[in-house]
Specification:
Strand order of the largest sheet: 1-3-4-5-2-7-10-9-8-6
Shape: globular
CATH architecture: Roll
Radius of gyration: 19 Å
Distance between the termini: 43 Å
Helix content: 10-25%
Number of domains: 1
CATH topology: Thiol Ester Dehydrase, Chain A
Number of strands: 10
Length: about 280
């Protein structure tokens, strides 16, 4: 696949396409998230939902007959019909205006903000940016989110692994995360995520060329946002921006770090940067 075989005009015609959905933030789902993070299920109706835990709500679903080879719903309805086989969560930017509370009905309005074609060492890449706007009763704005999705070609044995990116050096606090297949399964179930890279080891190795199951990008971002909040109890996040740099796998423990100021990041077992996030209170 090359950029020449991708119809840029057709893909960019999706810019501006919108959809709307709604969900009630039931406390049970948040309690299941707490259990997935190995915590007591203490959240109750009326409590504020922790930052980025909204990914356990607004679940999209498609019939089995409409799924692609990777377990995701086939593109071409709301998302543009990108003909590249690998899909990844590349990052996002969130701005929080007001908290959302468990038990509340919340509306999400989504729109395709941008579609960009690029060419890297691994071949053609398509970046899709989706804007989500969340509001409470009476159209009360709560927070916005820009979600970056990247589509890639299948791995080629002729392409070398990307160079390791060095993480920040000023670690003030560090925790070790030991992933498990059960935790990955639970998070996939909580978010109704059928992407096979998180539970089908043979697919990961034989089709996508990974050494193990991939630790969910949103779950890594959840751990980073949680660390930012826990390091300064009582503070409320105003913004949170994160970018995935390298994948994490279930085969080895990794670490998450706080610089004591406004950066958090995840490091691969060999010390490279996996995900980096900045935030404001």
């Amino acid at each position: 696949m090359t950029i020449a075989t991708l119809n840029e005009a057709k893909l960019r015609a999706w810019i501006g396409k919108t959809e709307s959905s709604s969900d009630t933030l039931h406390a049970k789902q948040a309690q299941l998230m707490q259990l997935t993070l190995d915590r007591d299920p203490s959240l109750q109706t009326g409590d504020a939902l922790p930052p980025v835990w909204h990914w356990a709500y607004f679940l999209s679903a498609a019939p089995m007959s409409q799924l692609g080879r990777d377990g995701h719903a086939a593109v071409g309805e709301f998302l543009p019909p990108v003909s590249l086989p690998r899909r990844m969560w590349a990052g996002g930017r969130l701005v929080f205006t007001k908290p959302v509370y468990l038990g509340e009905p919340i509306v999400r309005k989504s729109s395709i903000k941008d579609v960009v074609l690029k060419h890297g060492k691994s071949g053609a890449l398509v970046f899709v940016t989706v804007l989500h706007e969340y509001s409470g009763p009476d159209n009360d704005p709560r927070f916005t989110e820009e979600h970056d999705i990247v589509y890639r070609e299948d791995p080629s044995p002729e392409v070398s692994e990307p160079a390791t990116v060095s993480p920040p050096e000023n670690t003030a606090y560090v925790e070790t995360i030991t992933p498990s297949t059960v935790q990955l399964f639970r998070y996939s179930a909580l978010t109704f995520n059928g992407h096979r890279i998180h539970y089908d080891r043979d697919y990961c190795k034989d089709v996508e060329g990974y050494p193990g199951l991939i630790f969910h990008g949103p779950l890594a971002a959840t751990l980073l946002a949680d660390l930012a909040v826990r390091r300064l109890p009582g503070k409320v996040l105003k913004s949170f921006t994160f970018r995935a740099v390298a994948p994490l796998f279930d085969t080895q423990s990794f670490t998450i770090h706080h610089d004591g100021d406004a950066l958090v990041w995840a490091q691969t077992p060999d010390g490279g940067l996996a995900m980096k996030a900045s935030f404001t209170y």
